[in-house]
Amino acid sequence: MGKDKGPTFNLKTPKGTKDWSGSDALLRDRIFTTIANVFKRHGGTALDTPVFELREILAGKYGEDSKLIYDLKDQGGEICSLRYDLTVPFARWLAMNPDVRSIKRYHIAKVYRRDQPAINKGRMREFYQCDFDIAGTFDAMVPDAEILRIVSEVFEELGWTGRYTIKLNHRKILDGVFAVCGVPDKMLRPISSAVDKLDKMPWADVRKEMVDDKGLDPEVADRIEQYVMNKGSRELLDSLLKDETLNANAFAKAGLEEMALMMDYLEAFGVLDKVSFDMSLARGLDYYTGVIYEVVTEGSAGVQADSPEAQKAEKSNKGKSKQPLEEEDRSNDPTLGVGSVAAGGRYDNLVGMFQPKAQIPCVGISFGVDRIFSITKARLEREQKSDALRNSEVDAYVMAFGGKGFNGMLKERMEICQKLWSAGIKAEFSYKLKPKLPQQFKAAEQGAIPFGIILGEEELAAGKCRIKEMGLPEGHPEKEGVEVEIASLVPELQTRLAKKQQGAISSLAQQLQGTSV
Amino acid sequence: MGKDKGPTFNLKTPKGTKDWSGSDALLRDRIFTTIANVFKRHGGTALDTPVFELREILAGKYGEDSKLIYDLKDQGGEICSLRYDLTVPFARWLAMNPDVRSIKRYHIAKVYRRDQPAINKGRMREFYQCDFDIAGTFDAMVPDAEILRIVSEVFEELGWTGRYTIKLNHRKILDGVFAVCGVPDKMLRPISSAVDKLDKMPWADVRKEMVDDKGLDPEVADRIEQYVMNKGSRELLDSLLKDETLNANAFAKAGLEEMALMMDYLEAFGVLDKVSFDMSLARGLDYYTGVIYEVVTEGSAGVQADSPEAQKAEKSNKGKSKQPLEEEDRSNDPTLGVGSVAAGGRYDNLVGMFQPKAQIPCVGISFGVDRIFSITKARLEREQKSDALRNSEVDAYVMAFGGKGFNGMLKERMEICQKLWSAGIKAEFSYKLKPKLPQQFKAAEQGAIPFGIILGEEELAAGKCRIKEMGLPEGHPEKEGVEVEIASLVPELQTRLAKKQQGAISSLAQQLQGTSV
């Protein structure tokens, strides 16, 4: 091994997986940090579960998608599988810990699905989920509303102000609508799933699927249209609350009352204006029992459909069941709808599947980080915010130069670095004994490092060195740097770093709260 | 499912794995953050690789321990295994990316080993590693010295000042010693592994193993003793540099010269006083080619053996091959020696095993976070620093009270929370419509939340509320809280939070830089 000529290995990552490095890894990390900080601000505590679970824990939770679960080989002992999401492990943990009757937990980790990967579409077999869930028995809609406040804080802090909409609906309202329209019980699931396609298909196509493919009475379909095509806010809710037919149904009545509470609380939390009550939102997963929501952003189908341009486009596309753009946008994550970047809802019965005595109601949200990453990166590239696309965050590059017989000043560079590191300043230097000055400048430029610390023999002998801000234009008075006492290098550099950070775009939010829409 | 009485599931995590939650998860997160911040300060960039690799990538890298690798089931397609460490995936990535000739990368992630678990001893099948490695062709010992500077910064910032020692040796010196002592080539590996046990066994036992079990000539063993029992600093190195027999060996000479350079650089980095040149350090893994090092701390065998008490204890234990304490201390991580909390070295040939044309020298360090966590937690408990053992980091609990007919002020509490969240303050409130005041105080106390924000009907009508610092003693002038204008609640609370943080132990380092040793 290793003795042969040429590579003897198949040098690749497994199908549907990839390595993350450089500016991509750094940007994704900053998205994680932004999201985790919001979770902590709301009292979230971290839960970390094993990457694999006993296979029986996952069994019967994902319906047809169970075939996508990765199994571990039987090497003797327990039979295990890689986790498919973070929700089932959370429910398993709650069932296992009867002392915990309520918790706000967050979990940012990878999940695994043996789906057909499409890397250029962002559909991977290994991908991250960022989940926040509130478990416990509380007064109606209070934690539910806080979840949407969390959603709004995350996207505001990612700099998406004005570019996202939280679509909101309630499973009970939907069930009530289907009942009063006359959908037979056994057709509830397929009709609900057809309605859920309204974010990517016009009504005519959805109706066709209901009537032609699923055998629904055309009159029932027309009655459904009168409800599910509505979206709005309080005025829509008010009109539904006056609908006597609908309110005669116990499910619908309960759902509408909860929705009224929800809107009151969303207003108190200052997020009602980010929410669209969208009666076509149905959500795929079976385990939702109350409010359901999905976040869509610019360029995703749901938002486009709201704009007049998109409605025009929709009309001209009648009869086409899929548009290329929408196909591109599709997530590999069945918990997310088409074009959505976060999704969730209330699921009151999942914990009871593990431990009937430990029934604990839950409500939560899952952020699709891979898609948020792609949209964020594309915007940074479009707006040429290269600062946000650096490989590392180094503050200073310590370099030296000298004339003939120059010894490279390695130890002096090391001692300066030591001072900087001890002060918490991120610093690098060349690992060469005698690096050339242009090489050192090149290294600082390649790393987009904002400051060079330059050691020269004469200055050093006088106890001085030079701070040079990189990338200043020709003719700038400080183009050649500023001489400072080595004893005051740390505070001098800290002042300049603070100033640079203040003047420039510094936080991810600031970088992303751009000018273009 | 879920319809039966009683649990129908085996509610547990797989053997050798566990859930992390509450204060344990929070403390571990803070250790990760401390370590990652040091990595970034030295220009480290994140690399994230898939949790599983093609099986052939892992094959032939771990010798006998290969039997501990977890395999995925063959579900059609590629044959994969869970990663066993982070070093082999890094080497695979370097071999796959020929554009990258040099990099400082860090990786904090879980690895998997089907070892016999011993949970109360901290030996798990799923555990974290925190790795930093520098790849590239540079002048001798420069990156090697920076790695030890990183080691020292991590432990200083974890608050371990004066409580850890970096044991340092060089594979070439060891090879030279064995050669000049007369160890036959084919016995190099077993004799080296016997020497490595000197941190947990007295010389007499090691000698016995060499002579009786491995058939080494007793005279050769006695010559080895003259070398490997030495530990020290520059004075030891100087005496070895004068040893003509040793310097006649090319390996030893090269190793000693590199060690001299290393000590110069460690001095420039200000860490020479934390390093012990320990000639008995051999390290288990085969792939090391240059400097090797291991960090030991109080209570671990290596440090105890240096103290007079430990030497006494050692003598009285002669003949016993294992002490219970040492057994307790044993890591499940073969990259770590007994009692060590971090370990690493230079490995110049690993990348070439994947891609002979892409030979890239590397040097790195792996921190054993599970052991660092256990030691840190035990100390916090011993020193009763409960503040560092909270479940979450919430700043304020917003509560309300009122007389007869009190409506609970839910929306008012929500609005106050909204103000606090918008200002970045971590805040919680009761999810009950009409919570009782004692319940709300209890919730704040249980979460060790430092401030209560109290809303009363009369104060609210006057645009005011009360900030109450929790846990003030009876008789304190602010025991009942301080009334403030709601308009200035945010700055008032921020001032108090900043003051509390300043006065109290705030960072992990501050919490851990305790008084007891």
Structural overview:
- The structure is a homodimer of 517-residue chains.
- Chain A folds into two domains: 22-382, Bira Bifunctional Protein, Domain 2 (BirA Bifunctional Protein, domain 2); 394-503, Rossmann fold (3-Layer(aba) Sandwich).
- The first copy, chain A, has helices at residues 22-41, 55-58, 87-96, 142-157, 171-181, 188-195, 203-213, 218-228, 234-241, 244-247, 250-268, 301-304, 308-316, 324-329, 350-354, 369-382, 410-422, 437-446, 457-461, 489-503, 508-512, and strands at 45-48, 52-54, 80-82, 103-112, 126-135, 164-170, 231-232, 275-278, 291-297, 340-347, 362-367, 396-401, 427-429, 451-456, 464-469, 482-485.
- Helices cover 40% and strands 17% of the residues of chain A.
- The first copy, chain A, has a nine-stranded mixed beta sheet. In chain A, strands 13-12-14-15-16 form a five-stranded mixed beta sheet, with helices on both faces.
- In chain A, helix 5 (171-181) runs antiparallel to helix 8 (218-228), helix 5 packs antiparallel against helix 11 (250-268) and helix 9 runs antiparallel to helix 11.
- Chain A is an alpha+beta fold and 517 residues long.
- The interface between A and B is large, with 101 and 102 residues.
- Strand 1 of chain A pairs antiparallel with strand 1 (20-21) of chain B, so a sheet runs across the interface.
- Chains A, B: GO terms for molecular function: ATP binding; histidine-tRNA ligase activity; RNA binding.
- Chains A, B: Residues 304-338 are annotated as: Disordered.
- Chains A, B: Residues 16-372 form the Aminoacyl-transfer RNA synthetases class-II family profile domain.
